[in-house]
Design a protein that fits this description.
Its EC number is 1.1.1.22. By secondary structure, this protein is α/β, with parallel strands linked by helices. The protein has 18 helices and 13 strands. It folds into two domains: 173 residues, Rossmann fold, CATH 3.40.50; 252 residues, Rossmann fold (3-Layer(aba) Sandwich), CATH 3.40.50. The strands form three sheets. The chain has a six-stranded parallel sheet with strand order 10-7-6-11-12-13, with helices on both faces. The longest helix has 32 residues. The site of uridine-5'-diphosphate-xylopyranose has 14 residues, from α8.
Length: 449
């Protein structure tokens, strides 16, 4: 029986291994992690990660050919194929700070593999890491061959193909050289993020002119060369990949002396930051230029719907912006715990564009934040509502009930274009929706600079 071991039971390792176990009953899959709470959670009814369908897949395989352990060395030494999916955050200090990947976790995993391996292993890199760096590190630490071109490398490529061939048609498995693989991953995410920044840039122009960004997206999406997907204007993109991968791309460009190319991609992140700021400014300026002491309900904290993941979520910037103007926040997200929200809001944030660390929230500011388990509770007595994540349940809320329990005038700021603007205005709300024609109330109020 082929044995696979995955180092890192996070958002990448956990779900990827569950699918491999499901699709390959003949393969034994061990997921290992140094975090005891994480492994305990993977072995309980309360998985550490929420994703639709994940629980069903795990329940089907756990104890059969899918196992989660903390004994990292043992399972690495027994495996034929090792996937490395440890975290590779952006460096916050030192050379390449704010751009390059922090390889601390990766290096420690690589050293451990080298230490405990007594037989030939195939090592598959799942974390996003500039490939050349990784390649050098690994070759220095081990005596293994990593390249696909050598006979051993060819065998490794074939063994990995055999795993995926259980459910991916042969023709859809692409093999390339190392740099092409690396840049394809970065380029795919950069292109997707760029689409969102493009449509978000249009949203500002739509608001200024009276156009409706949804109509513009719909129209241009009909051109099959553009296509309809990934054109939803929003408060900004988040997630662990888009910003990190673009920063990696920028770093690689700069290392190769390609300043113009680096600047081109940087602009995608700048527009994303602009969009988040623009949203906060719109909230403050609409509410008589101050939110000080006002209760604002924040609906959604995850970076997108159907996940509990909050990495780089635009909610962090929106909440910090509102707290900066002394608002009181009541936050509700169906999948994110209070602990996690408080942690995200009190974390030091690295400003990639300027070499400074933004200060974490003071204890006094933390008191201004409450986390509740119901949208009606969050909006009760609030002056305004900010919708930051596009959870389906926000579309079907009883907005009449919410309106009746709010302070007046009652504001809704829809950062995801999920509400029915016309209906809400009929109820009596003042509604701002990204990229849509402005409420008459807002027209006379230019956004703060
Ligand atoms: C992304 C890539 O899609 C995936 O292929 C890659 O492997 C990892 O990175 P993910 O970050 O999980 O996946 O989510 P994705 O659905 O791409 O959304 C990223 C962000 O863009 C979210 O904050 C989402 O809300 C936002 N988004 C997406 C928009 O604002 N508008 C859109 O039209 C689509
Ligand atoms: P990703 O989105 O890349 O999966 P996560 O942070 O969700 O990132 O998961 C990475 C996981 O890797 C974490 O659970 C962390 O504890 C684990 N990890 C980091 N370094 C090591 C290591 N040397 N050995 C085993 N697990 C590790």
């Amino acid at each position: 029986m082929v044995k696979i071991c995955c180092i890192g039971a996070g958002y990448v390792g956990g779900p990827t291994m569950a699918v491999i176990a499901l699709k390959c009953p003949s393969i034994e899959v061990a997921v290992v992690d140094i975090s005891v709470p994480r492994i305990t959670a993977w072995n309980s009814d309360q998985l550490p990660i929420y994703e639709p369908g994940l629980e069903e897949v795990v329940n089907q395989c756990r104890g059969k050919n899918l196992f989660q352990h903390t004994n990292v060395e043992k399972h690495v030494s027994e495996a034929d194929i090792i996937f490395v999916s440890v975290n590779t955050p952006t460096k916050t200090r030192g050379l390449g700070a704010g751009k390059a990947a922090d390889l601390t976790y990766w290096e420690s995993a690589a050293r451990m593999i080298a230490d405990v391996s007594r037989s030939n292993k195939i090592v598959v890199e799942k974390s996003t890491v500039p490939r050349e760096l990784l390649f050098r590190t690994f070759l220095t630490l081990t005596e293994f061959s990593l390249e696909g071109e050598t006979p051993d490398g060819q065998k490794a490529v074939q063994a990995l193909k055999d795993v995926y061939a259980h459910w991916v048609p042969e023709g859809r498995i692409i093999t390339t050289n190392l740099w092409s693989a690396e840049l394809s991953k970065l380029a795919a995410n950069a292109f997707l993020a760029q689409r969102i920044s493009s449509v978000n840039a249009m949203s500002a122009l739509c608001e200024a002119t009276g156009a409706d960004v949804s109509q513009v997206s719909h129209a241009i999406g009909k051109d099959t060369r553009i296509g309809p997907r990934f054109l939803n204007s929003s408060v900004g993109f988040g997630g662990s990949c888009f910003q990190k991968d673009i920063l990696n791309l920028v770093y690689i460009c700069e290392c190769n002396g390609l300043t113009e190319v680096a600047n081109y991609w940087k602009q995608v992140i700048k527009v994303n930051d602009y969009q988040k700021n623009r949203f906060v400014n719109r909230v403050v300026s609409s509410m008589f230029n101050t939110v000080s002491g006002k209760k604002i309900a924040v609906l959604g904290f995850a970076f997108k719907k159907d996940t509990g993941d909050t990495r780089e979520t635009p909610a962090i910037d929106v909440c910090k912006g509102l707290l900066g103007d002394k608002a009181r926040l009541s936050i509700y997200d169906p999948q994110v715990t209070e602990d996690q929200i408080q942690r995200e809001l009190s974390m030091n944030k690295y400003d990639w564009d300027h070499p400074i660390h933004l200060q974490p929230m003071s204890p006094a500011t933390v008191k201004q934040v409450s986390v509740v388990w119901d949208a009606y509770e969050a909006t009760k007595d609030a002056h305004g509502i900010c919708i930051v994540t596009e959870w389906e349940e926000f579309k079907t809320l009883d907005f009449q009930r919410i309106f009746d329990n709010m302070q007046k005038p009652a504001f809704v700021f829809d950062g995801r274009n999920v509400v029915n603007v016309k209906k809400l205005r009929e109820i009596g709300f003042i509604v701002y929706s990204i990229g849509k024609p402005l409420d008459p109330w807002l027209k006379g109020m230019p956004a703060l600079a």
